[in-house]
Amino acid sequence: MNFAQYIKEIGRGAEGSRDLAVEDAQQLYAAMLDGGVPDLELGALLLSLRIKGESLDEMLGFMAAVDERTLRLESPHARARPVVLPTYNGARKEANLTPLLALLLQRFGVPVLVHGLLEGYGRVTTGHVFRELGIMPAATPTQVQVALDSGGLAFAPLSLLCPGLHTQLNLRGRLGVRNSAHSLVKLLDPFHGEGLLVAAATHPDFIDLMRGMLQARGSHGLLMRGTEGEPYANPKRRPRLEYIHAGGAETLFEAEHDSLRALPCLPEGIDAASTARWTRRVLDHQVPLPKPLANQLACCLYASGYAGSLNQAKAIVAVEANGSANAA
User: Which of 154, 105, 155 is closest to 294 using CA atoms?
Assistant: First the structure.
């Protein structure tokens, strides 16, 4: 493979570069995932894409290569699609509530796959909070499937689901900047079309790109602005929640912009132990579920097929999750 030709196409800066076709992008990223690109050329490719910005066709090609190298999981026999929660950012300023969303969905019998990194890099990860709650990462593909089938919840490291993508993600430590893998992991679907992807981004351009990818791939997804990049709704102010399906986009909740009338009850600290204690209290109905998270939970119940309509999902959440009208 002539890597110099690819670099020539994409490496001429933001103005002079040209986008790759889907097929070329798939072939190139397959070589990158398989370790077939020398370090010098790999660095040049990653930085060129970073400067140019990935096109929709390029990302679709990259994702096709990722799909071919991703562990395939069977959807558990349940009334709902499995929900896929990618967790790669962790908490810096706000408590990480991804574990709470996963456990709430599990309570309703919706299968949940959480995937991410085991390394925290100074942040409080979902893995840290899960450990405080007694939930450990799976060590083998069989453990992932058994956890889904028997308990309805599995936490899988990226290194288990797609080792090549994990390697690409870790290059940030050497290069100092993000690369395409940081967006691709947000759309990873080990159920290969059967899962509901909770796709979260923080920049409007990436949200638009992810919407385009979900639509082009015919995926089921809940698209939103993440909280510090994590796939849960900001408990202080709800983001826009879009349901992507059948090639279209349906806005289930608009973003909130009004000033807060009162702060929701949140963990006393962002550390894993404090977050886990608060999570248990919410699950035990000792403290109310923040309204934005109740809204997101209702969206997941509806989009996964657990509920027949959004209104039904909102009613279920209001009655069964916290006994209040928080989801209305």
Answer: 105
**What's the helix, strand, coil split of the chain in %, to 5?**
45, 15, 40
Instruction: For residue 157, give the 3-state DSSP assignment.
Output: strand
Q: For the domain 3-68, what is the CATH superfamily, name and number?
A: Transferase, Pyrimidine Nucleoside Phosphorylase; Chain C (1.20.970.10)
Distance in angstroms (rounded) separating the CA atoms of residues 105 and 314: 13
> CA separation (Å) from 159 to 71, 82, 112, 155, 324?
10, 20, 18, 12, 40
Q: How far apart are CA 233 and CA 112, in angstroms?
A: 17
Q: How many CB atoms lie within 10 A of CB 219?
A: 20
Which two three-digit tokens encode residue 51? 């400067």
Lowest mean pLDDT among 33-42, 151-160, 254-263: 254-263
71's CB contacts (< 8 A; 6+ apart) are 141, 144, 156, 160, 161, 162, 190
Instruction: List pLDDT tens digits, range 167-210.
Output: 999 998 888 889 999 999 999 999 989 999 999 998 889 999 99
Strand 112-116 versus strand 83-87 pairing type: parallel
Please give the backbone phi and psi of residue 106, each rounded to the nearest 5 degrees, phi first.
Answer: -60, -40
Q: For residue 134, is pLDDT > 60?
A: yes
CB atoms within 10 A of CB 89: 24
Say whether 90 sits in a helix, a strand or coil: coil
Distance between CA atoms of residues 185 and 183, nearest Å: 6
- pLDDT band, very low/low/confident/very high, at 321 (cuts 50, 70, 90): low
Q: Which of 2, 44, 51 is nearest to 27 (CA)?
A: 2
pTM value surpassing 0.90: yes
Residue type, 270: I
Longest dimension (CA), the chain: 62
Question: Fold for domain 83-321?
Answer: Pyrimidine Nucleoside Phosphorylase; Chain A, domain 2 (3.40.1030)
- Number of helices (H), then strands (E), belonging to the chain: the values are 16, 7
